[in-house]
Amino acid sequence: MKEKSGMDLFVHPLTRNQIVDLLKDNSPELNEELFSRARKIREDIFGKKIFIYGFVYFSTFCRNNCNFCYFRKSNEIERYRKSPEEVVDIAKQLAASGINLIDLTMGEDPGYHQEEFNTVLEITKIMKEETELPVMISPGVLSDRLIDKFAELGVEWYALYQETHNEELFKKLRLHQDYFERMDCKMYAKEKGMLIEEGLLAGIGEKEEDIADSLMVMGKIGASQMRVMSFVPQKGSPMENAETPDRNVEMKIIALMRILYPYALIPASLDVDGIKGLQERINAGANVVTSIIPPQSGLMGVAQSTMDVDEGGRTVEEVKHILDGMGLSVASASEYKEYLRTLPQRSAAASGGVTC
Ligand code: SF4
Question: Which GO-annotated molecular functions does the record name (predicted)?
Fold first, then answer.
């Protein structure tokens, strides 16, 4: 009898062990098969359309000390906190350029925590009114009371990444932070009607089994958007000298996310390899381009804080140009809103891509 190859294992739904085997098998044939299946699934559901998100990282102050992060509080770097007027102006510029959503991101800024987030709530309210675009907030861990306030403003998305679902590894990466507090926080946001984005970092000491667990948890918690980014060493951080992983790992995780959760929104982040990394992520099955930043705005990215920003590489025009060359196009704001309207039902219908 013919021995089972990696590709024979690739049946839907997948078990944890099968996901692990697929991650361990690095044969070019298997990888190509994964990417091509992921693209086919994306095309069946989303056609030729790709969504695009604008990124507004408006405060780089943070009370935490994550080992992998450039903006950790112990790192002596120049920081900024944009004024509400600046944030709203940038958001309007992004909206005019054709993005589908504004991702309002900050470190866990102690200043905003001290004032109960009044400024951020005000910014969010004005921004929603002025741009009429859906908003994702990425503020870190919040109290239930604050999540209630964002939910009342009609904020569509709450992004909060564990980065790993191995609790021991979490402790080493997110120093002095509580794994379950973070999980509970996003589950509370979901209960309040917000869509949630979960994320993992590739190349931070995880094993294939940990990646498989992350993929399963993402489905279990009902994350509607799932992101993976390759770790990039950050100057001045304790992981400054660690190596960045082979990008193939990130691409395979993107493909597996698409195969396991066909309706999920899956980012191709410009924040890892800049605009030059867009094509391979889209080819792996991603359907959202994130981290679009207006040039000369004084804003930074997260993993690659300045890469391609002022050179204009992270703009809608550049993204359109690349997608066009791939036979794809950017969705309109109304197409994105329509997709969001039906997303909760679709995610629920599609959960079942993994068996225990
Ligand atoms: S990852 Fe986020 S919470 Fe952690 S140090 Fe960086 S900005 Fe702060």
Answer: 4 iron, 4 sulfur cluster binding; metal ion binding; transferase activity
